[in-house]
């Protein structure tokens, strides 16, 4: 191994020399609209898998497309020496839809604006994925004795419905000593953070039908039932819209509260309410207390209303009583909550108090309690410190990554996080972006991580 290549100066030079190639590869992937939620984009999802396989091969690696019952997985790797340890980096190549009117450029056109890269998927999750790949190229050039594998998914944005089956089908070829996920968000720029846990997710819908057509409110109003009004009452009975508190008995029974040590680390993690509001463009908050915000986003379960469907929504007012209505909701879950127990509790509550309301269960993702001790966790912290000259905080992630617990359960190894995205990058938002500072620093972080863990012999 040539250790000089893995100094910060040498890795900075590697990043500068690789910038054009990095941007070209990211452009190729961003300009493929791999929207897993849109059946009309299935051809683009397949095209993205083919492009990803070609990317690995173009840079001297090997790659294969692994079929599942749904969208395929991409498995790429550098090195296959059985005497060396193996590390797998997980990312996803599918993206959210991009139909928001606020986009200032075509969402699937890769725009370079100085050191900023714009386009759907640029930060979630194609930019971090390509960054990790270039970190691997730097480590391989230096002769780091490590088998570096990549597992890229194409269904993460729809809850990974085929991931478990695909992983079981191909687990023999995906054996690894540890997994690193690069699909998480720092608290703010200059303050690296890595999750000590992820919230789970469980969606459901409520529907109510009381007639077969619109009714004239002057003729039947006051006598006919109004399904929109009734479903609004259902929601208000289940949760306090002002505070967000869930009112269903037993909902919080299994919640594991953050420990005193966790809260102390959160308090010194650099979180700012003002920055949080600015990054997410929030104009109103339920609380302005920093520790309460962190508890609510990272350490407490939620119930959220995502949409209300029914009645007239055009200009002006149509004075009709709607025949049917629907409310779309979900809960974010924290350790040690169980998605099945939680949804059964909600279903039973609705059935008891509102027997006419139909309950429709949607997909779910289990919460995940991460690892904050041991050599792999220390290697993550050291990689951030090396590349970004700042200590890393173990916080939690408010979002969900369904693949994480599945990988631990099936592949039998621990999962860690080396995320690179920032709140200002706009996960799932219009004008999503990534930037060269995070990319170049991320290459150094991954290269350093690979070098460190290469000494962890089997």
UniProtKB/TrEMBL annotation:
**What are the UniProt keywords, alphabetically?**
Hydrolase, Metal-binding, Protease
Please indicate if the UniProt record lists Hydrolase as a keyword: yes
Judging by the UniProt lineage, the source's domain of life is Bacteria
Instruction: Give all residue intervals belonging to the Peptidase M20 dimerisation domain.
Output: 197-356
- Keyword Protease recorded: yes
Q: Please identify the protein, giving its name as recorded.
A: Peptidase M20 dimerisation domain-containing protein
What's the source species' lineage? Answer: Bacteria, Pseudomonadati, Acidobacteriota, Holophagae, Holophagales
